[in-house]
Amino acid sequence: MPLFHHKNKNQSDMSLHGGIRLITAVHPKSSISELFRAQVEDAVNQFLQNEMTAVLGYEPYARTGQDGQRNYRNGYYNRAFDSTLGNLTVKTPRDRLGLFKNALFEPYANA
Fold this sequence. Notes:
Helices cover 32% and strands 19% of the residues. With 111 residues, it is of the alpha+beta class. Strand 1 (73-83) and strand 2 form a beta hairpin. It is elongated, with a radius of gyration of 21 Å.
């Protein structure tokens, strides 16, 4: 049986409330909104990692040689955002040469 399926009027197996009960059974201390917030946070962080891979041209932990001209990953810094879902902590990747500029948000501005 598929996880999601069209429900006829006569079927009474999986209602919205049944799905909510299933989620709270799996994560009893989390609310639905917290689970959704965490999924959005994970998706944004994964997007940034994929964007860094595209900029550098190689996967994390890949051997790239010793040519001295290559740019390398240099960790990340945390950045907090307030959203309608709650507080999101985004891990913004860095590179050694400082060339990485993400497409999701502006870098910090010096005042």
